[in-house]
Protein 1
Amino acid sequence: MFENLQGRFAKVLNNLRGQGRLTEDNIQDTLREVRMALLEADVALPVVREFIETVRTQALGEEVARSLTPGQVLIKVVHDELVRVMGQANEALDLAAQPPAVVLMAGLQGSGKTTSVAKLARWLAERQNKKALLVSCDIYRPAAIEQLRTLAAEVGAEFFPSTKDQDPVAIARAALDHAKRHYKDVLIVDTAGRLHIDAAMMDEIRALHAALDPIETLFVVDSMTGQDAANTAKAFGDALPLTGVILTKTDGDARGGAALSIRHITGKPIKFIGVGEKTTALEPFYPERLASRILDMGDVVSLVEEVQRKVDHEEAARLVQKLKKGGFDLADFRDQIKQMATMGGMAGLMDKLPGMGQIPDQVKAQVNDKEMKRLVAMIDSMTPKERAFPDIIKGARKRRIAAGSGTQVQDLNRLLKQFAQMQKVMKKMKGGGMAKMMRGLKGRLPGMGGMGGMGGLPPGFPR
Ligand code: GDP
Ligand code: MG
């Protein structure tokens, strides 16, 4: 999978070598090429559009550290967006139910459902030490039940027999009952598919879903159908509460558009990919690994990560120095908020500051990005003089700033009050250093409340 994208990306991104910094101008051509590459890979258009816009915004906001080239930074941005589009992290199969955990398979004919049932049973036995009972509710396709019986024997899973004159829902109920009485960990239910989405098939799978109440309802889809895979997944997702997707036949798909589109179009995670015809050919879906495979530039990505981590540390250290010296005005405060946003939010920065490790995670999580944006907007609407001497901000100025930033005078009052308190704390801190401040603050943390609450420090300020 992704061979085509790999070739295109390598060419395109290497073109940016030697450029001084990332600008709208010099990323323009590269982004156009990236866009073409994604379209050629049969990624769905809305996904391509959002991908390009996100990369553009991210890239322009990105500082190019001295030891890096813009091309390297752009590669990292593209890499991160690839990971994000595919769903960030692997989502595991959820089997946390009173046994048996029921897994229902849905999908078009030929998508790989029956094969995937066997692969999954094998994977569960080998990786999770779970015994699965397999049953086929496909009474339409000749030999479908027989196919599953053979596969079950091959993977050493118990097979619950059914016949084509039975009713699918009755088969499912009987299998569930058997699985319960024999203490099976998992019941995997294979179903019939049609060549196209049709009402009768949807009704049947819905009836099966209602009878079984599965903890996992997996949509099985052929990777080679590209962006159509995402659209079919959406149609099924609208009819059934899907919990995930198995993307099959990725071994034969050089383009990979489905892998990049499904999450975005359906909101459902790809949990596994089929990578061959054999019953061992099933792998959990790891966005990070696949993104690295697409770009085939793992060394660049880790280099950029390392340098950026270092720069973050230096920035944090500089900030601590500045805090210690005092003389910290609203403009500094704004820079600090913005910097935090680019560093993965408040929580990210807090971890880098000395002494911050002791702050409980839920306190860090209180910091909210929307509030950060509002604060920045308010400070942006001030004149330089107002930022340096907030005391001069009175009636008319307040109204002007609030209007200019789309906020209320009360919001501004709160910001000013909080900033004044922050300066007070910083003056105290001058003598004792950061550690002392942290100790002082720690006792008060619970009282600080949520964002924008009175009496607390403003969000964006390291607590
Ligand atoms: P169903 O109609 O949805 O039950 O589909 P099947 O499980 O019968 O699979 C249809 C065909 O696709 C079979 O020939 C399988 O061997 C093949 N197949 C399923 N998964 C994969 C896969 O991941 N890779 C490859 N190469 N073939 C697959
Ligand atoms: Mg089948």
Note: The pocket of guanosine-5'-diphosphate (ligand 1) is lined by residues 107, 109-115, 193, 220, 248-249, 251-252, 274-277, 281 (CB under 6 Å).
Protein 2
Amino acid sequence: MCMEDKAQQLQNLYEKERKRLLTKEEPAGMYDLPVFGEGSLSPFLVLIGEAPGAQEAQTGHPFVGKAGRQLDELLNLAGIAREDVYITNAVKYRPVTITRSGKKNRTPGKAEVSEGLPLLEKEIAILKPTCVVTLGNTPLGALLTLANEKKHTIGELHGQALQINLQGQQTVLFPLYHPASTIYNRELLPTCEEDIRALGRLFAVNKR
Ligand code: URA
């Protein structure tokens, strides 16, 4: 499939999803400001985050602001250029809870992740990456479900290149901790760095 076809197919998918999300009612999510994937259309790897935050919803781009800087650091350490990868999220809108001081990010629920699976599966089918990198537990759970694999946590699978089957296509699943996780748990830092270097080695060997 040529690049224009891929771009058109992704755009069609995203427009359909934009309309579907508009039928959902706030306040559980910012459905009117979805954030879709972007990046290389012939990527060695597709990076999958959890869900957009406030800045992503505001700008319409995944991983901007603080989360974007954390992701850029991760990619730098792996020796991977951001323009060589495709970046998307398991859930395409910002999930929120309403507090007295305003909207707060929350982890998407199981049903919200399940609802996002058909679109995620189609994105991967169009892009056909060699490797899918999940950031944290939410996208890892999504990918294991799509591959009909048993549930595992990021603590069990981080930093390993796992062979999975996605719609008959053999793909490498490489689970990483979410780049923000070291903010809450500094002790994870050396492990995260080791995992990221391992991803960098895989990328250096296989880059097309
Ligand atoms: N921004 C995103 O787009 N995804 C995340 O998982 C975190 C921040």
Note: The chain has eight helices and nine strands.
